[in-house]
Amino acid sequence: MARDSHLETTIGKSLAKTVADSRVLMVGAGGIGCELLKNLVMSGFKNIEVIDLDTIDLSNLNRQFLFQKQHIKKSKAHVAKESALAFNPDVNIVSRHQNIKEHEFSVDWFKSFDLVMNALDNLDARRHVNKMCLAANVPLVESGTAGYLGQVTIIQKDKTECFDCQPKETPKTFPVCTIRSTPSTPIHCIVWAKSYLFGLLFGNTEDDDDEIVSQEDNGDEETAKELAALAQEAQALKAILASAGTEGFAQRVFDKVFHTDIQRLRSMEDMWKSRKPPTPLKYDVIMSSTEDLQMALDATTLESQNLKDQRVWTLRETIEVFSDSLLKLTSRLTTMRETDAEASVQFDKDDSETLDFVTATANLRAHVYGIEEKSRFQVKAMAGNIIPAIATTNAIVAGMMVMLAFKVLNKRIADCKTSYLVYGRHRPQLIVSEPLAKPNPKCYICRNSYIGLKIDTEKSTVQDLVSLLEENSLQDAEIQENGRVIYDPDFDDNAEKTLASLELTDGKFIDVVDEDDRKIIVCLKHVDSADLGESTYAIEGDIEQALEQQTVVRQQLKQAEAAEAAAEHEHQEDPDVIMSDANKKRKLEEVLSTSETTTEDAPLKKTTLGGVAHPPVAGANSGDGVGDGTSTAQAVDLDEIVVVDGRAVDVVILD
Amino acid sequence: MEHKITEDEAALYDRQIRLWGLEAQHRMRNASILVAGMQALSNEVCKNIVLAGVGSITILEHETVTEEDLGAQFFLRQGDIGRNRGEAAAEMARLLNPRVNVIVDKEDIAQKPSSYFSQFNVIRIDNACRETKTGFYAAGVHGFFGYMFCDLTHHEYREEQKETPLDKSKEPETTTSHLSQDYDSLVSTLETSWGYPKPKALKRKVSPLFFAIQILWLFQLGNGGRLPHASSHDDLEALFKLRDERLKSAQVDGGFVDNDLLHTVSAEIAPVCAIVGGFLAQDILKTLSGKDAPLLNYFLYNGIEGTGLVHHVQKST
């Protein structure tokens, strides 16, 4: 019997052929991606394109099983392809070591696939692929995992909710003064070490704060003064940097950052009225203390029980790591700057010298402020936004993605569900599913209509664009690109400019809103005028139909808003009886986030696909529930089924 | 001798240690596992537990590779046809994680002399788990469906709960509780009598798949161990007959297991193996780590409906 016999027996010859003829795009070749590619080549898929911009790291190998030690630093996409081809050489795989957001991956390129499958780990790329699939009207299988939790769903334009229909959590930000002057938690110290001090010492620009430090402070005079003082201190530190490589350099940096600067802060009495003031640290005082030396020795003897990575270092050890990593990083920077004067070292959680430095400085700062110190293992997770990941969750999720892919290719989207993996004690189900949600009428991504426009962006002007829109029923249009106003009836400054001069080039999306407030997203495709023939442009798609659709979308939105307003009104009259659906959902989410048990039919709290995941909540404990009645012995002859081991073997599996 | 987790291992297993902790990793590192039978589902299970970093895994398999095996068994290559299936799979399994000792035993499990069983201390299931406190799992994939069964005799485990203190600046406190669970043997779960409940009520207690797999076992018993062929009319007739007998003896309404459930019984497909094999490996790791509650005691996956139900089937009293 042939290789495909099991598959054909199960899914049928006709679907097996559809699968073999389909073209699928896999975005991401990491944790889920490795499992997914294996499943695809083993499930009859013959044309697969895989894209990933990442390279392989040691910490991937515990789950990304297409990669081995000798592949570290190589392209994930290329190695994944080679490994998967060994499973089934009879598959055509194209691998790309590129960013999916690159220009060449246009709407037309997305259209060349029957199905797109996301195996991504970040919000930004997910939103991009979501938008491209909506514009190309290609079904998207979306997935995500975090630890034991995972989820899989389908996104199809106008039929289901899209990735952006529900708001996503944004990364947490901290006020700049909390980070620079008044930290109170370990994360404040870590952010200071990673995003402030690290950049100051090893970066190339003046003040390159990470986005997680928000600048929106109250703007009062005190704050301004404090910021000015901090800027001055930064300059003084840079002066010390000039002495890198000379005797006592580490000590000078240490005393500057943890003594001089802290003393100045401490002198600002107002700041410490309601807070515990920081205690400056002096390098030689600690290094000559015998008490801490003994603690360090004790810690070394503990090493056999506890990895150094997993325990909090003594103050003396911390300073040693600080000096050591500082010297290594400054010398690395010096070497780099021999060839590139602008070179800088970036923090990377997997670069052990940078992690050492951040751990040591964060903990020294924590020590100064009397904040709990953290192990290097913990700092790594907090500084690197690490989400724990295991092979099994990825394997299950990637398996469920292919089961959905079968249904989509079989034109059975109606049978698809959003599924969650749940974890916890004695649950009645390990997979919880709910029907696909309808698009959110308020969604500003998927409620749009997308139209392709072939045009010579070098020669055509904004006025040409406005005219051609008018020819196509879009009167008095407002044109924007990514929030930037290009043209509206009262603003024609750009009318004579070419599209290219305004960076409206191939692959750009422009928003067009007509006099009736109907919005069409136009995707620009540059074509040389010579290739356009008679006309100066060509429209792909049906504008009339798109406009009709937008009229409907606007009606739906109005209805939704009216319903909400009505519900809000009634809600005020009798809060216990009437709640809008949205409110009901919110209420439930509040309940679910505090309690692990609820009824079986309750809607689930969603796992966020990117960033932090919330545990989806399943039904109540299954507990006992079966097996009343009396026994009538009718059992399979067990002698034939199973053998079990005792001491040498802990678990036996029978396949 | 007990093996301690090294710095190198901690780096390799970083992302999973962050989930289940160093102690769980340590226990896995010192555990050994026997996998009896190497097919597509066990490919998945082996991959997952080898990646997780257990101490050793022994593959017991006497059969040779056929072309059909290449369909869903990713450990196998075209060139492996005719080789021992366990040996071919072990080569690939070792590459996934050189730290795990992968052992192959090519003898037929049925032909093993009793000395082998004493070497591994393997005995029949009815008393093995009870006496030796060894974890036992049975699992299989049949077309769109899959199952696993777990009997740990008596299992002790711990659970950690994080409580967020009112003072948000403080770390959440972790409380550990020590729990235990008694398990029923496979034979006693099969002896359960259901007393003809209404199908709807019964469905809440147990999936029809529970009986479907037993009907398959019965078919294998009567047919020298082979699985039925989906295209064989005689095989299907035999299955339907076995179903009627089995359901009657279990005091279950005859319509509870419909024909479709018995149709694609002899095939293993990759995505279903990935799903069932993922849950199975996860549960094995959970058992080894002594952290959190393992499966109690049946998991039944239905790929057509996309459901994965857990049923606790207990001995009739």
From TrEMBL, chain A:
Q: Where are the transmembrane segments?
A: 386-409
Q: Which GO terms describe its molecular function?
A: ATP binding; metal ion binding; SUMO activating enzyme activity; transferase activity
- SUPFAM superfamilies for the chain: Activating enzymes of the ubiquitin-like proteins
Ubiquitin/SUMO-activating enzyme ubiquitin-like domain ranges (all copies): 453-526
Domain (Ubiquitin-activating enzyme SCCH) ranges: 323-380
Q: What is its main location?
A: nucleus
Its annotated pathway reads: Protein modification; protein sumoylation
Q: Which Pfam families match?
A: ThiF, UAE_UbL, UBA_E1_SCCH
What the entry lists under InterPro entries is as follows: ThiF/MoeB/HesA (IPR045886), ThiF_NAD_FAD-bd (IPR000594), UAE_UbL_dom (IPR028077), Ub-E1_IAD_1 (IPR042449), Ub_act_enz_dom_a_sf (IPR023318), Uba2 (IPR030661), UBA_E1_SCCH (IPR019572), Ubiquitin-activating_enz (IPR035985)
* Residues given in the record as ATP binding sites: 28-33, 52, 60-63, 76, 121-126
Q: Which residues form the active site?
A: 177
Domain THIF-type NAD/FAD binding fold stretches: 10-443
Keyword tags: ATP-binding, Membrane, Metal-binding, Nucleotide-binding, Nucleus, Transferase, Transmembrane, Transmembrane helix, Ubl conjugation pathway, Zinc
List ligand-binding residues for Zn(2+).
162, 165, 443, 446
Give the location in the cell. Answer: Nucleus
BP GO terms, sorted: protein sumoylation
Disordered: region residues: 561-631
What highest taxon heads this organism's lineage? Eukaryota
Q: Name one GO cellular component term.
A: cytoplasm
**According to its UniProt record, which protein family does this protein belong to?**
Belongs to the ubiquitin-activating E1 family.
Q: How does it assemble?
A: Heterodimer.
Protein name per Swiss-Prot or TrEMBL: Ubiquitin-activating enzyme E1-like
From TrEMBL, chain B:
One short Pfam family name for this protein?
ThiF
The annotated regions of Basic and acidic residues compositional bias extend over 161-173
* Location within or outside the cell: Nucleus
Q: Which key words tag this protein in UniProt?
A: Nucleus, Ubl conjugation pathway
Q: Which GO terms describe its biological process?
A: protein sumoylation
Keyword rRNA-binding among UniProt keywords: no
Family as reported in the entry's similarity comment = Belongs to the ubiquitin-activating E1 family.
The record ties this protein, via InterPro entries, to:
ThiF/MoeB/HesA, ThiF_NAD_FAD-bd, Ubiquitin-activating_enz, UBQ/SUMO-activ_enz_E1-like
The domain of life for this entry's organism is Eukaryota
Domain THIF-type NAD/FAD binding fold, residue spans:
13-307
Provide the residue span(s) of the region labelled Disordered.
Answer: 161-180
Q: Name one GO cellular component term.
A: SUMO activating enzyme complex
Under Gene Ontology molecular function, one entry of this record is:
SUMO activating enzyme activity
Involved pathway(s): Protein modification; protein sumoylation
Name of the protein described by the UniProt record: Ubiquitin-like 1-activating enzyme E1A
Organism annotation: Mortierella hygrophila
What main location does UniProt list? Answer: nucleus
